Amino acid sequence: MVSSVNKDVHELPDKMNIETDAVIVNQLVGTKGESKDETFEAGTKMIRAFIRCEKGVGLSRNTALSKADSELIHFGDDDIIYDKGYSDKIVKEFDDHPEADMILFNVKAQEGRETYWNVDFAPVTWKNYGRYPAYAIAARREKLLESGVKYSLLFGGGAPYMNGEDSLFLHDCLKAGLKIYRTTVALGHEEAGKSTWFKGYTDKFFYDRGVLYAFLYGSLADILGFRFLFKYRKEMCAEKGLFKCFRLLSDGIGKGRELKKAK
Predict the structure, then answer these.
(1) Are residues 120 and 234 in the same domain?
(2) What is the pLDDT of residues 55-93, one digit of tens each?
(3) Which residues, 6+ apart, have CB-to-CB distance to 123 below 8 Å?
(4) In terms of domains, do 47 and 88 share one?
(5) Sheet with strand 36-42: strands edge to edge
(6) How far apart are CA 161 and CA 137, in angstroms?
(7) In sequence order, which residues have a C-beta less than 8 Å from that of residue 15 and are 6 or more positions away?
């Protein structure tokens, strides 16, 4: 299930080395076009593409999930290049681990954007779920649908608040009781390019991080938020200072708590 923005859906299957049937949701942002649905063949693969005049990565992933019909599903981005045989690796890993509702695979991120690399097969818990991007995630579709978990429309590219949508998604999956595991199996790599959301350590960066922490950590958001800033203070807070950054983050936490109450 590929989320893309302003891409040619006919080129993506070959560019990404997609080996299976696929659902592509391509959002048209800042460009002319109209919403439409397409179905076409790419070699032996059947591709269903949904072009939408809208924005928001959470909305894109939810649309893809609603259109998928396979037993196993895998979230993807348009800048992921898959290795030959990756699809068989996913199937084998789920066959070998029937206890897993969801498995987080290795995908090599571009240099400077690495957040994780699995070195063992182990459960994903409340202690370590926050490091994984969407393109690591594969799941048993029925289990995910039964859980009722969907991507938040508040966070991520094209949403009101910056990144964090993947962490919140996995948070909600754990809360719903899904059994999540990590694996050393690698599927491919991320194509080099600029971040679509990170514009430096701006006021919005800290405020939005506070909104996210309210959703992830509840009453512990302030404590864990300060710990996060203190740990990375030399990098993140060099310009503004630790306490100004914390005030911005705290304001965001307050907004996040308001949003949670309104849900």
Answers:
(1) no
(2) 999 999 999 999 999 999 999 999 999 999 999 999 999
(3) 179, 180, 181, 182
(4) yes
(5) 36-42, 45-52, 22-27, 2-5, 76-77
(6) 22
(7) 81
